[in-house]
Amino acid sequence: LRYRTINSCLHPLPQVDGQVLLTVEDLKTVDGHLHPVQQALVEAHASQCGYCTPGIVMSLFALYQSGELPDREAIVNALTGNLCRCTGYRPIIDAALGLFESDRPTVVEGNQRMNKSPGFSGRVATDESTLRELLDSIKRSHRLSLQGSTSTGKTNRYLLPVDLAELSDMLGQYENPVLLAGGTDIGPIVSQKSQKNKTIIFIGKVKELRGIVRSDSGITIGSATTLTEVYPVIARYYPAFGELLLRFGSPAVRNLATIGGNIAGRSPVSDTATALIALDGMMALRVGNTQRILSVEAFLTGAKHDVLAPGELIESIFLPFPKEGTMFSAYKITKRHDCDIAAISAAFSMELKDNRIHQVRVCYGGMSPYVKRAAHCERALTGRPWAADTIETAGHMLVKDFEPTTDGRASPGYRMLVAKNLLQRWYLESTLPPESLQVRAYQKTYE
To answer: What is the model's pTM?
Structure first.
């Protein structure tokens, strides 16, 4: 079984089909004993007003059920997205550190100590045998199709296909349906603005759109694969890309958000699109039995514009393996370290030969209405030695590539200055010890 935290406001009820939904109320045993996570928080005095406690409990519960022995950084990452105005987080982290001590019982041993009910009574979240039986019974009915009416009489549909053939039939049957993979874009629109969509097709269960396949030249990622699932594979080959993914929302968001959905959202600061374009990532688009291949760069054509034809969808994304001598870095500049949209993002990929720049791709988000490469900057780098004056010259070329605008996150001047500075940082990272440029105070223990 896999335990995943999610934000309920991003998860329409029909998407729970085939899953077991657990809340903080499900952790306590029938006779009233607290789950070890809950008990640890009580003993550390880690709850005051209690408003944030359910989310914190469920975040740590998912980490507990993973069976890992996380360090402080992993605990902080698991808690990302949970706000607590009362405790200052210290007792919460202390509770988690005590919970995950190396001599603690295993998940199985801990679960065996919990009082279990013979049936699913809403108090057996740790009884995996019962949960497996429940999931098996749910999955016998493989497809869910809901239809209802609004107060004005307009029909709303929610469809859950399980394969491409079924999805293709639905795309041909309904006019202008909304394709939903994770819901992290549509969810806030629906929950905050009460916007309704006539027909929603959830593609997160379409088997051909999920999973990761390795080949001799790279990895192919199904468009409906979540960022949580994508992270360990991408981080193995491109650690900087992996670091970027860890700054994408929070675990509760990454457990829903998909790589295809992030590209299809056409955000001018898309985290994945910026990195994929710098790495010359490719995409497979499909309509019916017809597939076409193009680059991620070619997919995005302007502000909220792409090349998708009617009825066409993103099937997969291909990421090539790094070549020998390739240097890749990715950056995300935000007001907050976590759970924030970038004011500017950047990704740089370069192949060096004899300390000269052989091939280079410089890509920015937040500098124009859509994620794009810096052509003038790239030309100033190509063929030149990898040196400080080369970077200085290339940075001056950015004014020919971009005319950034003002929004709530940054001014044009700030964006241009940071864009130049990120080029400088890329160079310094290759010439200075890594620890001289990294700032991660939350990893330190203050006595």
So the answer is: 0.88
